[in-house]
Specification:
about 130 residues; alpha+beta; 2 domains; 4-stranded mixed β-sheet; 6 helices; 4 strands; about 15% strand; elongated
Length: about 130
Amino acid sequence: MTSPLDDFDFDALFPVMERLAQAATPEEERTLRIAAYGLHYIDKLSMLDGFRSYLRDAQTPATDANLIEHEFVSMPDARQWLTQAQGRDVGSLVRVAGKTHAVWRDEAGELTLAPSLTPQDLEKLKK
């Protein structure tokens, strides 16, 4: 059984990448070096824990239960929540009266709700 993607030894990544680069074409080596610099950058910005969290999320199936962050009975309830929402909520999916919406910023920089779809919504439309 393989370990989850977020369970890795950061320092062990680079020797493996170096070994792969030695057998790579010049373009493959360039790609590996870019990936290594990207990981180093994430570490230097103290964002490695956030990256691990991202990897956990990336491995989670894209189901409505995992994607919808909040559910509201009505649009007024959702708009009330928006007044207290934070900038980190941009891109979040919410369900309002059974319909999916994404949190976005409008031209004035205010948070707003835009109609959106989850993979399950798309499957329902196909039927």
